[in-house]
Sequence to fold (124 residues):
Amino acid sequence: MSKPGNKGLKRLILAMRYSAQGLAHAWKHESAFRQELTAALLMTLTALWLGRSSYERLLLIAPLLLVLIVELLNSAIETAVDRVGDEPHELSGRAKDLGSAAVFVSLMLVVAVWATVAWSRFLT
Fold:
């Protein structure tokens, strides 16, 4: 049995609108997202110079996009937890810490990939 609601092109258009709203909310309300997006844009320009092939450029840009994805998910978790209540709770803190850890791990991937490509470009 299928879920009732919009189908086809109308569903796609609405999904794109909701996604755009989500990005606008992230830009407006999440300073970490603004900082990471700004860094990703600047680093993408650098990746176009640093990468010697289209594969290297893709390898440099992909983890930047991953950081943005993980930051959006982390912000969604934090927003949902904050919606539930303001009082401290061990599980709320754990959920927020896990989201933060996911962002940190994705940033470490950026460091590892960029260091590897830079090493290959400049020191070999």
